[in-house]
Design goal:
globular, 248 residues, alpha/beta
Length: 248
């Protein structure tokens, strides 16, 4: 059903497995999707052709890129929703050289959090002018329960994203600007496959009672549900998608 008819939603990191699933699910429910990619413009163009969306490119590791991306997105008409899905996961040991340590943390936060914060800022102002809108931040189980020593930057950046979501929900909900976060555990993506290649499947599946990772389509379906106009009371929610591996 066209639950999202007449909605225009910007999705960052839309050419990765989760981003593609979110884009397809949003489009299937009637939304026009602005499809962000970093370098894979061909994949973004193909996805745009498939869904009737628009492909946009920006390297969010550049501190100025998120603001430029939003301006380019605005050129395609009023935006009703934002999905901050773009993210990276890097590893650096606590024994690493300080310069390397700081560089990894700075890039992790730039892509995973600062770019998302800049897009949220732009979205809030845009939504305020048109009477409302919705933000969906793709966080992580790692941002809730802590994370492995070598990837603490990833967990910390996702924890910041969850807090940002709650702050927006509390501060701007009265303006019709609502925010929700999804906190997946392991999802079958390129990031997960890289982890499995390094650490083994057992390490990824350890502690997941259902014994498997989530499929990207599960995230896509839930993301589309969050944008339904009827789901305004989800404002401020952090929805866990982790197979029971983290309970609160």
């Amino acid at each position: 059903m066209p639950y999202l008819d007449r909605q225009t939603i910007l999705v960052t990191g839309a050419t990765g497995a989760i981003g593609v699933a979110i884009t397809l699910a949003l489009a299937a429910e009637g939304a026009r999707v602005l499809i962000h990619c970093t370098r894979n413009r061909d994949a973004a163009e193909a996805l745009a052709a498939e869904t009737g969306g628009v492909a946009l490119a920006a390297d969010l590791s550049d501190p100025a890129a998120a603001t430029r991306l939003w301006a380019e997105a605005e050129a395609h008409g009023p935006i009703t929703g934002l999905v901050n899905n773009a993210g990276i996961r890097s590893e650096v040991a606590v024994t690493a050289d300080l310069v390397l340590w700081q560089a990894v943390w700075a890039r992790e936060f730039q892509v995973n959090f600062f770019a998302a914060a800049d897009l949220c800022k732009a979205a809030i102002l845009h939504f305020r002018a048109q009477g409302g809108g919705r933000i969906l931040n793709i966080a992580s189980r790692a941002g809730q329960r802590g994370y492995a020593s070598d990837a603490m930057a990833y967990g910390a950046s996702k924890a910041a994203l969850i807090n940002l979501t709650k702050s927006i929900a509390q501060s701007h909900g009265a303006e019709g600007i609502t925010a929700v976060a999804l906190a997946p555990g392991w999802v079958r993506t390129e990031m997960a496959e890289a982890f499995i290649a390094q650490h083994g499947a057992a390490a990824a599946l350890n502690g997941i009672p259902i014994g498997r990772m989530a499929a990207p389509q599960e995230i896509g379906e839930l993301a589309a549900f969050c944008f339904r106009p009827s789901q305004v009371s989800l404002n401020g929610a952090v929805l866990d998608v982790n197979g029971g591996s983290y309970l609160r």
